[in-house]
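Translate sequence into structure tokens.
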Amino acid sequence: MLCFCFSRHNWENFLNQEFVNILGLMTLSVFVVWFFKRINLPAILAYLVAGLLAGPEILSLFDDPDQMHIIAEVGIVFLLFSLGLEFSLPKMIAMRHLVFGIGAGQMIVCTIVFAVVMISFGFNLSTALVIGGMIGLSSTAIVIKQIDELGRLNTPRSQMAVSILLFQDIAVVPILIVIPLLAMESEQSIGTAMLFALFKGVVVVAVLLSVGRWLLPRLFNEVARARTDELFVLTTILIALLAAGVTYAFGLSMALGAFLAGMMLSESQYRHQLEADIRPFRDMLMGLFFVTVGMKLQLSVFLSEFHFIIFGCLLMMGVKTVIVRLVALGFKSSAKDAWAAGLKLSQMGEFSFVIAALAAQNSIITQTQSSVIISIGVLSMGLTPWLINNSDRFANWVVKDENKDTLVETVLTEAQANISEHVVIAGFGRVGQSVARMLKLEGIKYIAIDVDAIRVQESRQAGEPVIYGDASQRDLLKSARLLNAQLLLITFDNHDKALKVTNAVKDLKSDMKIVVRTRKDYQVDDFYKAGVAQVVPEIQEGSLMLVSQVLHYSGVPMSRILKRVRNERKKGYQHMHGFFPGETTEISYGTKDKLEFMHAVVITADAFAVGKTLEELCFTKKRISVAGIRRNGQETETPDEQTTVLANDVLVISGKPRRVERMEKFLLYGA
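Result follows.
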């Protein structure tokens, strides 16, 4: 009885309310994200819905969403640190007209326009300016995450959107400073505080840039010499949080400090490793951030002001899109880029919620007004993933008098525009450029298509015939003279996108010969079914070349080596499929049913398989192959189906991970 009471007491302590709430939130998030992915909706929407369900008006797991606000804000810190790794200081200087031109113009015009609208509804000047500032901000977290997932971060329209977001993050600082001063109604104190804030911001940014440029590369050199992964990850997290903490301590945005730290490390050789280390923490905490945003939505206010919220949301998003277009017009930017960037930035930002809470706390707006603004903001965030996905289509629909790609006319010379019997290279990265050099040595003409604006610009300056844009667009393929080409080469490592390009090409010219480079051998069949002439699996071909060199230096005649290589290719690299997994083997949701594993099963004396033949165990029916049997220290490769399994045999089986797992259980325990 005493033991029971003790166990029950411990159990009650273990299952305290906070633990149950966190466990419930995690369970809810997993289920909602899974459901949204099953119906092909973005994970961001799933997190918002999970937050709404967990909020105070439904499940009430957390009465106050701000309980997790600090942890969730760290997600934004890591996101901006990752973004900083994409931007070097020279690149930022080159983009200054976007950040301090279009970015500043968008923020100022938005604030003034919506302030005037608020004044026309009877709000006083202070309240109108604060609401205008809130509406002028956009969601850095959603926009950058969605653009990054779509692989469009380096396009001109995305660069414009990111530049505006960077200025908005800077603009948050004076807005947060002004709000308490507006409540004091002292013009002198406002002016003094703004000047002091500007001076403080310049000093902090200058110090961070100076220290980061000279100290951080040396620090990571020392860490790299230790050859400890844990130390590298820990240092990365520490640097991001320290930079964020420094700017926060001086009244600036935490996100700004993290961005500066990332930017200082963007030119180091550790950039890609840093990005890989920070990504798991960033994605997890960003999910938590969107959950807290969903918690802020008050259903009672949303339902009572439903029509006003819907109308306000649509009006806000439409006006913000038009403002970005008009401001960009003054800087002679592309109309398509401006419309697409405006649509990406048409929602309200996460910092708007912080401003709304502070304004309500200082009685500049009422709690009801704050709830309405937050409802409009959450609704606009919910629409954002769909808008970003379709922003390019919208821009092409609005601006019909421009070419599909504004760089096409300036890239192709008159001679290149009339080219024929050439090779079209989709993707001008490392592989595409290597192929282009070999083609040039043989005097074979080519035109390349690439989606990285910086790479296109560099290549064009060097005289390369490169077109900027998405290779799956038919008009762009026609601009590359696909109908007169002899071959299309797809070099980028993106299975879905490569299939999309293949289908677009086949629609234009069904007999076009297509060669695809892929890294994964399990994707080969998909391309052949789509009508590709040749698929080159990079890993298998690299392994074949390595084997050829090993056999050559081992004394095997070259004729036998070439015959072996031809047979491997003809039989689909049969000896290169399947491998023994290890601790570092990565299995993702998309590859778990495509990889082929090898596994050694030790047949114990009481195992189900003892005394049965391989045919009786139905390996073929279960789509598992037996690579070999090891018996008494002797190994037999590809044994006959009539081979009887004996105790202490070791069966080496090969197949998909889940099938291998099921087969092992069957061999040992039966059905």
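Note: DSSP finds 29 helices and ten strands in the chain.
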